[in-house]
Amino acid sequence: MKREIIKTNDGSTTIHLPEWDETYHSKHGAIQEAYHVFIKNGLCFANSQKLGSLFEGQPIAVLEIGFGTGLNCFITYLESKKNRQAIDYVGVEAYPVAIDEAMKMNYPKEIDASEAAIFKQLHECHWEQQHSLSDNFTLTKRKQFFQDIQDEAAFDLIYFDAFGFRVQPELWSEAIFASMFKSLKPNGVLVTYACRTSIKNAMLSAGFSVEKLSGAPGKREMLRATKAL
Q1: At 169, which CATH number?
Q2: What DSSP letter does each residue of the chain carry, written as one string?
Q3: pLDDT in tens, 17-43
Q4: Is 143 among the domain residues?
Q5: pLDDT digits over 42-93, tens only?
Q6: Residue range of the domain that includes 114
């Protein structure tokens, strides 16, 4: 399938698949979407759920569904450094982005050029092994189909960043979200950029409590699901 690198509206790059007319990140802004969905409404919220109003940088385990370009992992690493929080990060990807293609992404330049070596390292490190990128951040990349995930009560937070329902509806099914529910610890949180009624219903059927939130620029709404037990 043909792939091309395009610039999104906030100046950051993403990968576009012309055959599907699908991108790895929002055309309205890759970086701003990642921060809005996964940091503001994901990591920050999960920390408040886990720790209460007084954040003390306690450890947190994150599962990313769709490692892709590494953008979400990179900004989460930067958050762990800023907040001195220990984060155990697991990124799942069935079809990894080639390293040379990932290196064409301009995320370090747009966010923090001093961390360019870390962005390169997170792509170069071997799959199926845990790597320490800093004293506070460990990364494990798993080459795996989402349907094959069998973790149990292992994560505090899931970044659900699969390709959209329009091109891969099978990734947004009740069965997938049941697996996500099982993977989360009690009171664990799942966030995604998507907000389709069928997706919300699949989450509800899997056992989640679901809320609609304001979406990233260019998108009206997004979803956040909680494993409330």
Answers
A1: 3.40.50.150
A2: ---EEEE-TTS-EEEEETTTTEESS-TT-HHHHHIIIIIIIIIHHHHHHHH-SS-----EEEEEE--TTSHHHHHHHHHHHHHT--EEEEEEESSPPPHHHHTT--HHHHH-GGGHHHHHHHHHSPTTSEEESSSSEEEEEEE--GGG----S-EEEEEE-PSPTTT-GGGGSHHHHHHHHHHEEEEEEEEES---HHHHHHHHHHT-EEEEEE-STT-SEEEEEE---
A3: 999 999 999 999 999 999 999 999 999
A4: yes
A5: 999 998 876 554 445 689 999 999 999 999 999 999 999 999 999 999 999 9
A6: 30-226
